[in-house]
Amino acid sequence: MKKMSKQDGKKREKAKVAFHRRVGETIARKREEAGVTQGEVAGRLGIGEEAVSRMERGLVPPSVFRLHELAVLFKCDIDVFLRESSRRSVDQGNRMTSMLQRLASADRQFVVEVVEKLCARLDQEMPTENEVAELKQAKGSRPKGAKSAFML
User: 85 near 56, Cβ under 8 Å?
Assistant: First the structure.
């Protein structure tokens, strides 16, 4: 098995920090939806209010058991904390499906049309995977200090 490079290790750590932040944001959102304060959550879990704040800010990731306790407290599925924090397209699609199911038929159709138009617009503005690869290759062959077209 190949050892992880320093650069890969830094990327992994950055992704981990971002994921913890997103999980914390999900915890905060679920707490607000449940209509409880950080103090009330702390009291029910037997921890300090600052500990709840640190979880919500993503500074301290909750344990699996703590996620279970939060799910019971907020009356939601435990996987919500991970699914809603995920950047995987399948998880995001499932989240969109969940949101759409709560809407009336006409509202769902409206949302779908808006998303279709937005995606079409973004597709026109976004470079293809080949264009991105070419830009990365060109960036690697630039003299040090030279600016790319995106920086000009």
Answer: no
The answer to whether the predicted template modeling score (pTM) of the entire model surpasses 0.70 is no
Query: CA 10 to CA 120: how far, in whole Å?
Result: 34
Identify residue 17 by its one-letter amino acid code. Answer: V
Distances (CA, A) of 87 to 33, 51, 84, 101: 22, 26, 8, 21
Q: How many whole angstroms separate alpha carbon 110 and alpha carbon 99?
A: 13
Which ranges of the chain have pLDDT less than 70?
A: 126-127, 139-152
The span from the CA of 71 to the CA of 43, in Å, is 15
Handedness of CA 13, 14, 19, 20 (dihedral sign): positive
